[in-house]
Structures are given as structure tokens and as C-alpha cells.
Amino acid sequence: MTARILLLGGTGDALAIARTLGPQHVYSLAGLGRVPADLTCAVRVGGFGGAEGLARFLADEDIALVFDATHPYAAQISANAARACVAAHVPYWALRRAPWQPQPGDDWRMVSGWAGVVEALAPFARPLFTLGREPLAHLNEVPQRQHWTVRCLEAHPGHARARIIDARGPFTAEGERALFIEAHIDVVVSKNSGGAATEAKLAVARELGLPVVMMQRPPLPDAQREFTSAQEAIDTLANYNQRSFHA
Q: Average of pLDDT values for 63-83?
């Protein structure tokens, strides 16, 4: 019998993996964004109730492997998954996308959280936020001298000092350059997500001489096997999906 996989997703890499999985496998989404309609595998939307709830799900659904392809900044989900796998005696594998590295000409300002972002932005007037939803909770805190451009997956009305752009990558250098110029961006705020889909903003910031306020990655749990690309994961799962992951 084919071993059953629980794929924890929500990223483009996770979706690429999910598209290769058959109907016995489960693709889990936290509930943000659009649910793909073109998948053969089962799709589960919503949380599990922490590590304990996930461990129960693994046992109840006879899951043989958990594959964590969540965002590098989804640290709590990854921590819960690793703990649940230990409790349920299920292997925990993970996609650990390599972070971006500063290139010659880059001006990165490293910060560790929202307070650091606010402090680093004090000298600037027109930041572009590419942090996902987090800035939406702070729109009422936009300083009088600033106007924010926030790019995330969900539409939002914004207000007089904040423009919200709902868009999903990949983004091109041409598109990023046009946005930077049209919105008079003077600083970019980013997570170090890695990958090619959203890297163009860094190249354009370098080209235009703009600083990047970069949020440091949180620590993530170790996995029994770690992969650096979706294709590597797809190839390995294809070779393993007809036998036990404990073998």
C-alpha cells in the first residue's frame, strides 16, 4: 500500500509538490489565500490545534510522512509539526529553501522583528513592504511623514497614507522597476524568503541604490531529511511513494 503523505504548504514550492501527489495524500493549508482547484490530492484547510492536535491527526489518518513545505517564517507551524511527528513516531521531512545572500552593491539593514522594522524605517518616507499580512495590523500607526505601499496576497482598502497591492509572484525586474518608480519607493522591507519568485525586488533595489530592511529568519527545527528545492523533493517523493517511509 502506498505510504500516505501530509504536505504542509501555502507556498509556491508546496503547490508544485502538491500537484504531483495522488488522491491518497493530503495537502494542508492554513486558510490564507486561494485554495487550488487543480489538485488530485486531498486538500485540508485550517489548523490542527497545535502539536497535540496534529499528532492525533497523524494517527487517525494513518499518515506515514509529514513533509513541511511551509514558508521559512512559519516557525510555529514547523515547530508544531516536528513535535507532532516525534509524538506520533512519523518521519518529519522539510523543504529548507536557501536564503538570499547580499550581493556587491546591496545595502541590507538586518532586523529581527516589527520593532526593528519601525526603527529602521524612521529616515524614510515611501517604504514598500513585502512581508505578507503583518503590516496590515499596523496601518493606523503609519507616521505622518510616511506613505506605505504594502504588497500581500489579500485585497485591503488601505487608507490615505497606505496603498495595498494584492499580488502573487513571480515578479519580474521590469514590473518591480515600474512599481518602484511609480510609487517613489525609497526603501524595501522584505523577509529573506529565498527562491527566484520574489527575488527581482532585490535586484531592482540594488540597481536603484535603495536600501533593504531585511527581517532575519527565525530558527526552525531539524528534520530527518532536508531539501533545498521543490524539484529535489518531487524527485525523492516519486522514488519513495511506493514503500514505507520508515524503510
A: 95
